[in-house]
Amino acid sequence: MINDGKEFNLLREPWIVVMKDDGTLEEVGLIEVFERAHEFRALAGELPTQDIAMMRLLLAILHSVYGRFDPQGNFRPLYDDGDAQVIPDDAFDRWKAIWDEGRFSQPILRQYLERYEDRFWLFHPERPFYQVPGLDKATDYTAAKLNGELAESNNKLRLFSSRSGVAKSSLTYAEAARWLLYVNGYDDTSGKPKGKSKGEKLPSPGAGWLGKLGLVVAVGQNLFETLMLNLTLLQDGAKLWEPGEPIWELDHVRDMERCKIPLPRNPAELLTLQSRRLLLHREGDRVVRYSLLGGDFFPEENAFVEQMTVWRRSTNRKKGPEEFKPRRHDPSRQIWRDFAALFVSREWRLPGVVSWMKQLKYRKLVDRPLFRFQIAAVKYGDKDFFIDDVFSDGIAFHADLMNEDKLGEAWIGRILDEIETTDLLVRQVGLLAQHIARAEGESDGARLRDIAGEVREQAYFRLDRPFRRWLEAIEPARDKPEEVSARWWEQAQRIVREVGRELVENCGPQAYIERVVIDNKQEHRYSVPQAYNQFLYKTKTISNLKGG
Questions:
Q1: What pairing do the DSSP bridges indicate for beta strands 386-398 and 370-381?
Q2: How do residues 138-190 score in pLDDT, each as one tens digit?
Q3: Residues with Cβ < 8 Å from 84, sequence gap 6 or more?
Q4: Which residue, of 200, 209, 220, 305, has the greatest Cβ tally within 10 A?
């Protein structure tokens, strides 16, 4: 029943999909998801990227509450007030008090949500949640575009659609609310305003903020733990945040199209960033379309308020301080191949959540033998004009590897060495594939690169699970580094050599006859026996592999 234009209250209506311990799914509202977070295994929406968008909403609420109030409900902000009345240790003390309870049982959390209940209606005549009324110049899209599961690229035909009929052309209110968060964070750049004046140029916000990131989150044993592990009450685990307000606390929301704003200084502001101006449209009890305009954006450089991304050092910065930008994940790379970028502070700027986890480990606030992390991202095509793919990956390793002591540093160095060795092994099997193709008569450079790339991808696929098991089994205080490294070398060498042997077995007989190729006036000879012998020699020992 519609009440004064208000309908579907997100605090009380079920719309957040969660997984219970028995693997079944349930939909709950915002109040219930916090009260029962310790009972749920994880968020379980339609896509892993959607789950991260949902997690960021939940974290914004937690920052808004526990950044200001202690667990007893007393107003004691953890913000930098300039007079040293609050110190970073206060943030760790508050975090530990909540963590030790094992659940969000503090009444202040429900009281806060109920105080702002009027801002959490999906449909509201003045302040619909995460939306802007009006939007005269907006682009209209169907519900199928809002649904990230159905979003298509390059006009491809989906052969086995998970939805059809009414379910494809419209969404329930619960579904629309989830995808509202998703589109706000990951929307592509295809949306254009209507009625733009001739010659008018507006700044381009690019893809949604989450689409620009290489997202990484810590994973706990249940939803309560996952939210707490990502509740970075200090910037990069060290610095007090500045005050800030989430979108629902503002008296007025911005409705101007493509608005360049100052860099947010507080997680509550960033986590509720309105990358798009959105408005849902409904018929009966279903959402059938939505309106969209470009929203808020800010420069990416050194935007360290963002705690969930990998960073890359700017290569064209010659003067002034170092400059970092968010680095997107490469869907073709397994997460362990980017171990250095994610977890090694001496080579990269770490994601804030990783720095926070290091501090929790250092201060002995979290007692877990294994730390788990997940990455997720969307892959765009054609200058971010459409979403081409959605992917996620995860990794687990012993918590002692997060220690920045001699033991932890030694083991991190060892792991990085083994990843480098693995990359060199895979490179050799790619070269073998190219040489065999040359011996068979292939001369096109692009095709040769494709052949090598396909074989390398196959090799990494076969190495993937064994490497994860090897990494997860390392116990730094017990194991001997030389034995652990030797164990991985034997595995990796055997797997890569199996790929090489299969290449030789599957090549045609003409490849065994020596083929002479003149390239830049130089003579090159290719044959399978020669190429395979060279491959076996290079992969015989680590010394040979590295050029010894």
A1: antiparallel
A2: 889 999 888 877 654 444 444 444 555 556 689 999 999 999 999 999 999 88
A3: none
A4: 209
